[in-house]
Amino acid sequence: MSQPQAVVLLSGGLDSTTVLAIARSQGFICNCLSFQYGQRQAVELERARAVSAAYEAKRHLVLRIDLDAIGGSALTDAIAVPKDRNPETGDKDIPVTYVPGRNILFLAHALSWAEVIGAADIFLGINAVDYSGYPDCRPEFLAAFEEMAQLGTKAGSMGTRFRFHAPLMFMSKKEIIKTGIRLGVDYSLTHSCYDPVGTLACGRCDSCRLRLRGFAEAGLKDPAAYVED
Hints:
Elements: E1 5-9, H1 14-25, E2 29-36, H2 43-54, E3 59-64, H3 102-117, E4 121-123, H4 139-151, H5 154-157, E5 163-165, H6 173-182, H7 206-217
Parallel strand pairs: 1-2, 1-4, 2-3, 4-5
Helix pairs in contact: 1-6, 6-7
């Protein structure tokens, strides 16, 4: 039998890179999809290209969505990125790094591409444990989107069952990192920071703090370059 194809959402970050490694380990031919969505820093796309090349993805498509024209997020607008928050005891409100509609749009584009190339499987790195409270990272959101995919596509109406894989959904950052290490992921290629200084991670935003804690709990040193280093 020929290998099945999958679309893998790839940001260039720790989570999505681990998901790409998981998809490959499961025997999928991977087609990576990244977005220039108006984010204030471009280093993550550089890392996504490097990761895609390292994993010899069949294709790597980078699409543009102008979410910066809509604004409303510290990742796309002139809004300060929160720093030095405790992930466990800090503010439980959805932070300003939430990008309105981002995962809905990303998944819609992934579904469109999957239908065109004949893929029924879509992988993404959302997580409902070590995350910032984003509503579009919850399992109920993904289940609802999967049902919509069956109803709103030609392939779905003709019997294709689209499957949305979120293998990191219930894993801690420590567990994600250990999974990636077992699969040979080179985390020095990845970038997770919301507010980098050039190519250096700030070490203080929510994403950096979760990443650093994950490596510490795994008993490993984070290979990313930080400002304080």
